[in-house]
Design brief:
With about 120 residues, the protein is mainly alpha-helical. The chain contains six helices and no strands.
């Protein structure tokens, strides 16, 4: 069930429907806090990095919050760790710290914040 949901969420995300991806990232963040599994933690890192590299901040914000509020400590992907150094506070996710030319890029908002709907 998890693998199928993850696949569908990623497929929808490629077409601009992010609701499934946002649910997946909340599942990782809150689920791992309650019941930590190293395999899911590794997938969380991979998916968060993919999402960030596609220009999104939502997954990175959820991963950052997990690290900040969770008592779980595990190895973090070096690339992801490097990216996270640009974000010190929750407010930092409202502006893309990697925007070139000093101009701040508007972050991508969650579908719940924009009122967008998932699948018709």
């Amino acid at each position: 069930m998890y693998d199928e949901f993850k696949q569908l969420a990623n497929e929808d995300g490629k077409h601009g429907c992010r609701y499934g991806l946002e649910c997946l990232f909340r599942f990782y963040s809150y689920g791992l806090e309650k019941h930590f599994r190293d395999d899911l933690f590794q997938e969380f890192q991979e998916e968060a990095l993919k999402d960030y590299e596609s220009g999104q901040l939502y997954a990175l914000e959820k991963f950052w919050a997990f690290l900040k509020y969770s008592r779980k400590r595990a190895g973090i992907n070096p690339r992801l760790s490097e990216v996270l150094t640009k974000f010190k506070r929750l407010e930092d996710f409202r502006i893309d710290a990697t925007a070139e030319g000093g101009a701040a890029a508007a972050p991508s908002l969650s579908s719940s914040a924009t009122g967008a709907q998932a699948r018709p």
